[in-house]
């Protein structure tokens, strides 16, 4: 099996037109990287052979570090194609001899790699199959690599359809192109709009808020960003405007669970609940907020960017009885489709 998988190394050397600097290989039991490394190192010892493992299934990395095969007590199965508790005896021997290093990557980085390959080739890799690409990205960033000839082995496309939702959601985080923030704003009319103004023209991927305290509001927001420096700049801007902010971009519990649990019941006086649909384009949300009267306080707000042509927002608004006519005029002049959900039984059961 090791020899058979090693023929991939033979193909690489025969087909590459330029010298190869490094080859990134997914690692499970170690057969694939052992075969490739043994062949390439025999003919091109200068080529770096780098294994890539998930952080939650890193038996080879730990074994090489301890110079003996170890047994993991448990492994994560997101990248199920490489989810092994112990590497093979012969593969470990060969890896000790021929592998230069093993890089660990988290699930977000794997999801980002799946997205990269899809955007380039319209092929969908399984998580284990995308490890090589994820590792190459980590290594290139760490080494500040430029003009290098890197090869990543894409080792499988056995993707479950129901896993795609998770991959799409986490890919932006893996690329460091989404920031997840918890921001505290004053609970008063106009503060929500002021907060959105500070966000600027950035694409909002998610917005969760529910009235809970008459003095301050806690907003859970996801934003598309270009890099970490942009996030740091935004954090400084929010703090400068007396809006306390907590960066949750690396908080696993927040990303997995809290973002779906923000809310709960609230005794928001004169609250009405409306669902809106508007064209998904820059500025649509601000147009909505600019049209609202400052006399109306937003008591609930939920929005997720699903990549569709239309954005969908659920909004709770406190509208006093003497403002009903003005509020209806606002709805009619907004130009967006809307539905009154104030009598929806789900609202009464879980939110009111």
Explain the overall architecture:
40% of the residues lie in helices and 22% in strands. The strands form two sheets. It has an eight-stranded antiparallel beta sheet with strand order 8-5-7-6-10-11-9-12, with helices on both faces. It has 13 helices and twelve strands. The protein has two domains: 2-157, Rossmann fold, CATH 3.40.50; 178-350, Biosynthetic Threonine Deaminase, Domain 3 (Biosynthetic Threonine Deaminase, domain 3). Strand 6 (204-210) and strand 7 (216-224) form a beta hairpin. With 352 residues, the chain is of the alpha+beta class. The radius of gyration is 26 Å and the shape is elongated.
Compute the separation of the termini in Å.
62 Å
Q: Domain count, please report it.
A: 2
Q: Which residue ranges are poorly predicted, with pLDDT under 50 across at least 5 consecutive positions?
A: none
Measured by DSSP, the beta-strand proportion falls in 15-25%
Which percent bin holds the helix content?
A: 40-55%
- Shape descriptor: elongated
Whole-number mean pLDDT: 87
Structural class, by secondary structure, is alpha+beta
Specify the CATH class of the largest domain.
Alpha Beta
User: Number of helical runs?
Assistant: 13
Q: What string gives the helices and strands in order?
A: HEHEHHEHHEHEHEEHEHEHEEHEH
Instruction: Supply Rg.
Output: 26 Å
DSSP summary, beta strand count = 12
CATH architecture call of the largest domain = 3-Layer(aba) Sandwich
Strand order of the largest sheet: 8-5-7-6-10-11-9-12
CATH superfamily of the largest domain: Biosynthetic Threonine Deaminase, Domain 3
CATH topology of the largest domain: Biosynthetic Threonine Deaminase, domain 3
> Major sheet: size, sense and barrel closure?
8 strands, antiparallel
């Amino acid at each position: 099996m090791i020899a058979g998988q090693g023929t991939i190394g033979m193909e690489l050397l025969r087909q590459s037109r330029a010298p190869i600097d490094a080859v990134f290989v997914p690692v499970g039991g170690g057969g694939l990287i052992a075969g490739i490394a043994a062949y390439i190192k025999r003919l091109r010892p200068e080529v770096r052979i780098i294994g890539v493992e998930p952080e939650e299934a890193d038996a080879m990395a730990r074994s090489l570090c301890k110079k003996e095969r170890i047994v993991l007590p448990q492994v994560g199965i997101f990248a199920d194609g490489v989810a092994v508790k112990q590497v093979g005896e012969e593969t470990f021997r060969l890896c000790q001899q021929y592998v230069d290093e093993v890089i660990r990557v988290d699930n977000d980085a794997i999801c980002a790699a799946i997205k990269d390959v899809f955007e380039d080739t319209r092929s969908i890799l399984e998580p284990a199959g995308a490890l090589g690409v994820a590792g190459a990205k980590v290594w290139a960033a760490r080494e500040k690599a430029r003009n290098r000839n890197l090869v990543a082995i894409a080792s499988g496309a056995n993707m479950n359809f129901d896993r795609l939702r998770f991959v799409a959601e986490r890919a932006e985080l893996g690329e460091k192109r989404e920031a997840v923030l918890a921001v505290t704003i004053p609970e008063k009319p106009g503060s929500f709009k002021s907060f959105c103004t500070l966000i600027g023209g950035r694409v909002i991927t998610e917005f969760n808020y529910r009235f809970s305290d008459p003095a301050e509001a806690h907003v859970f927001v996801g934003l598309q960003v270009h890099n970490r420096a942009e996030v740091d700049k935004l954090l400084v801007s929010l703090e400068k405007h007396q809006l306390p902010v907590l960066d949750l971009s690396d908080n696993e519990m927040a990303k997995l669970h809290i973002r779906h649990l923000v809310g709960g019941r609230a005794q928001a006086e004169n609250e009405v609940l409306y669902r809106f649909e508007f064209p998904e384009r820059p500025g649509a949300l601000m147009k909505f907020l600019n049209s609202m009267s400052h006399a109306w306080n937003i008591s609930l707000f939920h929005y997720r960017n699903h990549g569709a042509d239309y954005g969908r927002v659920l909004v709770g608004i406190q509208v006093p009885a003497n403002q009903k006519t003005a509020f209806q005029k606002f709805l009619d002049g907004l130009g967006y489709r809307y539905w009154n959900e104030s009598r929806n039984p789900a609202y009464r059961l879980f939110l009111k």
